[in-house]
Design goal:
Layout: H1 2-21, H2 24-31, E1 35-40, E2 43-48, H3 51-71, E3 78-83, H4 94-97, H5 100-106, H6 141-152, E4 161-164, H7 171-185, E5 191-195, H8 196-208, H9 212-220, E6 224-228, H10 238-252, E7 256-261, H11 273-279, E8 284-286, H12 292-306, H13 312-321, H14 326-343, H15 347-352, H16 369-379, H17 384-387, H18 394-409, H19 415-422, H20 427-443, H21 445-459
Parallel strand pairs: 2-3, 4-7, 4-8, 5-6, 6-7
Antiparallel strand pairs: 1-2
Helix pairs in contact: 1-2, 1-3, 1-5, 6-7, 8-9, 8-10, 12-13, 12-14, 16-18, 16-21, 18-19, 18-20, 19-20
Bound molecules: adenosine-5'-diphosphate and magnesium ion (MG).
């Protein structure tokens, strides 16, 4: 297990080094989606999402890559590139990376984690993630307001802050932004960001070096501990116990603990029940799928940030085609901008010429009103006819309002059109229904989960 993590860590280190050494925009344009496929007898194979990126990496970045690998004790005889299909998730699972030959070759690489670097505590935070560049929308406003509250009163309310949501919806960005904001306010605060997997490898390392006590002491000194991707927690073993102990120590000292996960603790099989329940003592907050408007706003903000011009129509095209993942949304924007730059075209011309990265674009891209109505009705165990009736029975009315809400937010349908679809008299009823759901969503977690589940089925 430890060796497998090493190969992941090598890649992390290589990426971190290159990120520091070339302009930020270049890094995000060319290295997004790249991954380490194998290291075999000096032959390092890097997977890239498309041929275009491959040719650019090969031509421009081979030498920085080589150097960075060498800094990680890997002597590169040859760099090879291969296009990897993005059907599978970008982050490769531990099993996929665990090719025996790859592991064997890197087993001796020194482990260099943010926690242990030079024996001093590093924050592990990436300054790129701030609240200023986190676009607020209906999908995240509640979580953002909690985040602001924590920055104002760390250790007091919303402790622990448990943030969950699907991949690429902004968990890492938001929790790192909290850490960065806290440090900006008061640089004497001790903040540490760590993915749970690094927590584990650091813990194992500290045991191997007989420095378990020191490890624990380091954590006790923190003002804020941010643990990312908690769903990767491994079985109930010594390291989970260690995490639990540290959690309790910090909690008792009124230090803030922030944990992200792709699902609720109760849905993670490997987690101890007591730990699971403590994590959500102060509630569980989620990041929802962004609506069409949210997606457009994010794309506009990213383009503005990069200082590039992009047609509204191009923004809408991207927002319309990528619905469930902000990372993929950004990736597509970057791809289109890179091609535009390379081919000397405008982004809309790139789209019209068909140079889009189809692996980002989700199938079933246009969902019809009929599909929305069917899925919502089915979810609430109604027939579409029952749901779109005049019935005022509350659960039927609620289902109808959810359908109105999705038709408005995701399909951008007008209220008179929605009225026709769901069989209500006039558009003011629709407006009222949408507002009702919007209001309920702020407080009603069950409703949030229901709508997220419906959308997942809709766009699957
Ligand atoms: P997660 O940790 O949930 O998988 P990330 O935090 O890594 O997701 O977000 C994926 C990408 O989307 C990041 O580049 C992040 O900056 C961006 N992103 C997510 N949400 C927003 C937002 N509301 N505004 C701006 N960028 C966002
Ligand atoms: Mg993340």
């Amino acid at each position: 297990m430890f060796d497998v993590r090493n190969i992941l860590d090598v890649w992390k280190n290589v990426m971190a080094e290159i990120e520091q050494s070339i302009p930020r925009e270049q890094f995000s344009t060319w290295f997004t989606g790249a991954e380490l496929v194998s290291v075999d007898d000096g032959i390092v194979t890097i997977g890239v999402p498309n041929v275009f990126k491959m040719s650019q990496l090969q031509a421009k970045y081979s030498s920085v890559l080589k150097t960075a690998f060498e800094h990680n004790n890997i002597d590169v005889k040859k760099l090879e590139y291969t296009v990897v299909s993005k059907e599978k998730p970008k982050t490769r699972s531990v099993d996929e990376v665990a090719r025996p030959q790859a592991v064997a070759k890197v087993a001796k690489v020194a482990y260099n984690s943010p926690l242990m670097a030079n024996g001093a505590l590093q924050t592990g935070l990436n300054p790129r993630y701030t609240l200023d560049n986190f676009v607020i929308g209906g999908n995240n406003e509640l979580a953002v307001s909690v985040a602001r509250n924590i920055i104002d009163n760390p250790g007091i309310s919303y402790n622990p802050f448990f943030l969950y949501g699907g991949p690429g919806l902004g968990k890492t960005h938001l929790v790192q932004a909290i850490g960065n904001a806290l440090l900006q306010r008061d640089s004497s605060k001790k903040v540490l960001y760590t993915p749970i997997s690094s927590f584990y490898s650091d813990f194992i390392k500290s045991l191997q070096n007989k420095k378990g006590d020191e490890f624990r002491q380091k954590f006790r000194k923190l003002d804020m501990l941010i643990v990312d991707d908690f769903q990767m927690i491994i079985n109930k073993d010594a390291s989970q116990q260690e995490f639990f102990d540290i959690f309790n120590d910090l909690y008792q000292l009124n230090k803030h603990i922030i944990v992200t996960s792709d699902r609720l603790p109760s849905q993670i099989k490997t987690v101890d029940e007591r730990l699971a329940s403590r994590l959500t003592w102060a509630g569980a907050y989620d990041l929802q799928l962004p609506s069409f408007e949210d997606r457009c706003a994010i794309l506009k903000s990213k383009a503005e940030y990069k200082g590039v011009e992009i047609e509204d129509e191009a923004i809408e095209y991207i927002a319309d085609n990528i619905k469930t993942n902000i990372r993929a949304l950004e990736g597509e924007l970057e791809h289109i901008l890179a091609v535009a730059d390379f081919k000397n075209m405008t982004p809309l011309e790139v789209i019209n010429e068909g140079y889009v990265n189809t692996s980002n674009v989700q199938r079933n891209k246009t969902v019809s009103a009929k599909q929305v109505i069917e899925k919502v009705a089915k979810f609430y165990q109604l027939t579409p006819k029952e749901m779109c009736s005049k019935s005022r029975v509350s659960h039927i009315k609620n289902a109808r309002q959810v359908a109105m809400y999705i038709l408005s937010k995701d399909l951008a349908m007008s209220t008179p059109k929605i009225a026709l679809e769901v069989g209500v008299k006039d558009h003011t009823t629709v407006m009222h229904g949408i507002r009702k759901i919007e209001g309920d969503l702020k407080l009603n977690f069950t409703l949030r989960d229901q709508i997220a589940a419906i959308k997942e089925k809709l766009y699957a």
